[in-house]
Write a structure and sequence with these properties.
Blueprint lengths: L7 H27 L9 H13 L16 H7 L5 H15 L1 H4 L7 H9 L2 H7 L4 E4 L15 E5 L2 E12 L6 E7 L9 E7 L5 E6 L10 E12 L16 H35 L15 H28 L5 H26 L1 H4 L5 H11 L6 H13 L8
Parallel strand pairs: 1-4
Antiparallel strand pairs: 2-3, 3-7, 4-5, 6-7
Length: 406
């Protein structure tokens, strides 16, 4: 029998995140949706709490704490399985996104760049950058989903790297203390030369060109960053500086194996919020949802609700599996993309259907349904679009390379 119950340790952490979402995020959700680019000052009190939890060994509240398993490989073999940082981060991302995904992305010291650091940093770098607030800068004006098309360059000059380029759609790009930047150390070597670099906020040559006005997640600042002869220390390159043409850029791509399940969890959290709100509205309208009667014998709205709930459950379980595999040092690129594809599609479907079924109530600002409909779309786009995820899954299932299946 498969036991799908969460361990006691993870239940406690998830419950703590849920209380943050309920008591802090939900009450201010509309305020910062209307006040785009206003800094959520309520989150300042969380910064010290998050740091204190990290120092005490307690799981973090936000969603970017993932990375390596808490146990070593030998321990995992003996015990059979392990639930570590990735699983905890996923559950926390889900619960806080249930409150407000834009605010979740604004939690101090919990940026997506932190997951990148956890995925590929050396032990020494983990000590240095373990308490920073890191955003992640990949996308450029010349490309979106093709991460191999990076044109930002990094040239070694003595004991410093000199970075030049422009990065767009950087989540927490203005507020974070550090930015994980993807850049090429030798463009003639193609994708194998793409590395990730930790750039401090005060690095000379780094500037914020502008903040984007967006459809959703308005509480989160999304920035355009310029790197103009930006200088950082030589040892701020994550992982090995060596270019391995045969290996390609698997090292930096490993970041996505950690972050895609987290984004899937965000979509699952928003979908759950919408389902709970819709159930309450349908119940008030006299629509009964039964699990004992076949869906085709129930009210059309009830049947549609059951379909969406089933999609939500499958997205949730796929996300859990991807995180569990990461914690147990199992290759999870396929599962990470499957969870991201399923959850991203489910999130937009559920939230927009909820708006539709709720009618005037759903389309107005009387509830948060219309906001969740807007917020959910980005979760199907960033960290790899729906189409990219399906392409990755197809390549893995069919055993095709990126050159063979485009």
């Amino acid at each position: 029998m498969i036991n799908l119950e969460l361990p006691k340790k993870l239940r406690a952490s998830a419950n703590q995140a849920h209380q943050v979402a309920k008591e802090i995020f939900r009450p201010i959700s509309r305020k910062y949706d209307l006040g785009e680019h206003d800094y959520p000052v309520e989150l300042d009190t969380m910064a010290a709490m998050v740091e204190g939890l990290a120092d005490s060994g307690t799981q973090k509240i936000g969603g970017a704490a993932g990375g390596r398993s808490d146990g070593d490989e030998h321990a995992t073999e003996l015990l059979g399985n392990s639930n570590g940082g990735n699983m905890s981060a996923l559950l926390n991302a889900l619960e806080t996104s249930w409150g407000d995904v834009g605010l979740m992305l604004s939690i101090p010291y919990q940026g997506l760049g932190n997951a990148a650091i956890a995925a590929v940093a050396t032990d020494e770098q983990l000590k240095r950058f373990g308490k920073v607030w890191a955003s992640m800068a990949i996308t450029e004006p010349s490309f979106g989903s093709d991460s191999a098309a990076v044109t930002t360059t990094a040239v070694l000059d003595g004991d410093e790297w000199v970075l030049n380029g422009e990065k767009i759609f950087v989540t927490a790009g203005q507020r974070s203390t550090h930015i994980v930047v993807w850049a090429s150390v030798d463009r003639s070597l193609g994708r194998a030369a793409i590395k990730s670099f930790v750039v401090p906020r005060d690095a000379p040559g780094l500037s914020v060109a502008r903040l984007e006005h967006k459809l959703g997640i308005k509480a989160s600042d999304t920035a355009v960053l310029l790197l103009q002869d930006c200088r950082i220390p030589k040892d701020n390159i994550l992982g090995s500086p060596e270019v391995n043409v045969e290996k390609g850029f698997a090292g930096v791509m490993q970041t996505f194996d950690n972050t895609r399940p987290l984004v899937a969890a965000m979509a699952v959290g928003v979908a759950r919020a919408a389902l709970e709100e819709l159930r309450a509205i349908l119940t008030d309208a006299g629509v009964e949802i039964s699990y004992d009667i076949p869906a085709n014998n129930q009210h059309a709205a009830a049947a549609e609700f059951l379909r969406m709930e089933a999609d939500y459950e499958s997205a949730y379980l796929l996300s859990l599996r991807a995180a569990w595999m990461a914690d147990n040092k199992k290759p999870n690129s396929l599962e990470a993309s499957m969870s991201k594809a399923k959850a991203g599609r489910t999130g937009t479907d559920v939230t927009l259907k909820a708006v539709e079924f709720a009618g005037a109530i759903g389309y107005s600002q009387r509830t948060l349904l219309e906001k969740w409909g807007r917020d959910s779309k980005i979760l199907d786009i960033f960290e790899g679009t729906q189409q990219i995820q399906q392409l990755i899954v197809a390549r893995r299932v069919l055993g095709k390379t990126s050159a063979e299946l485009k």
